[in-house]
Amino acid sequence: MISLPTLPPLAGLLLLSGPISDPSGPEQRAVSYLAEEVPRWRSANGCASCHHNGDGAHALFRAIALGVPVPEAALSDSVAWLREPASWDDNGGNGAFSDKRLARIQFARALSAGIEAGRIRNRSALQASADRIASDQQPDGSWPLDGPDTLGSPTTYGWSLASLSALEVLRNADPDRYRTEIDRATSWLRSRPIRTVLDASVELLRPDDPGSPTVSQRRSQAIALLRRSQADDGGWGPFATSPPEVFDTAIAVLALCETDSEEARRMALRGRSFLLSSQLDSGGWPETTRPSGNQSDAQHTSTSAWATLALLATRGIEEPDAADLPPAITPDQNPRTADPPTP
């Protein structure tokens, strides 16, 4: 069985082995790549970014918390930036990824991970950022982003992943202080239809609410969608019939690591295999973009950060015994058909 930590989703990656000592191993290569990439952006562009100083820094902080060595210089610039949430809205950059509400969530998520890793000790900064995030919440419990509620990407998240990330920031900052906002967010996420791989992953990643009569049904539906949607090479695309993408696979793997079943472990390991086969010589990954096939430095860094988290979460997991697994789905069962409507 997968041994789950008593930590919140997204922050609660699995510590399944000791510090990584093999510099040629996939996890260390990924971390080493981000350690060079994360500080590059601000010095080259004169502004902080949610993809480098947010997503990339978050992955490095998580690596530190799991015992992976990261040079202090790789995060010194991000640490200085994250300590000052009052400055986040004026980061000197405007462009395709300048949604300030989302940026506040991404920076706060990285700040929370930095505190957990022991690289940032200023909890008052987390409190200040959580206050602002709480004020951004809509009455229905969501954190809507600029533009329509469309399919999320590594850097733009989408409404569900952004709202889940905001919820986790509030839980890490002070679950009692933000109880009303947390409950509203949980209710909103629980009401979302499960139609895409990201929908299913967010459902499995969100905190348990055992008082809801629909929890078990929704979790089963999410697992079923991921089962049907997994490609022969182990990856997932955004939809059940889409070609696999690194981001969608990484999110699915992280979600399955929060599910205590042998079947989930098998699916997660197949997803890990896809990520290993997709890793570039540099240690990073090809960017996932919407639509697929475009080029984006921002999406490349965020994609690499999410994939790094997935590798860290699955290192040390052993293959389950075949006798403990349910029968594999056969091709005649058409495993990659469209998902039925959410009840």
Automatic annotation (TrEMBL):
Signal sequence region: none
Could you tell me which species this protein originates from? Answer: Tautonia sociabilis
- Composition bias (Low complexity) maps to 301-314
Region Disordered, annotated ranges: 129-149, 279-343
Lineage, top-rank taxon, reads: Bacteria
Residues that span the membrane, as ranges = none
**A family per Pfam:** SQHop_cyclase_C
Bias (Polar residues) occurs at: 289-300
Please report the stretch or stretches of sequence annotated as the Squalene cyclase C-terminal domain: 216-319
Gene3D superfamilies given for it?
1.50.10.20
What name appears for this protein in its UniProt entry?
A: Squalene cyclase C-terminal domain-containing protein
Q: Which InterPro entries match?
A: SQ_cyclase_C, Terpenoid_cyclase/PrenylTrfase
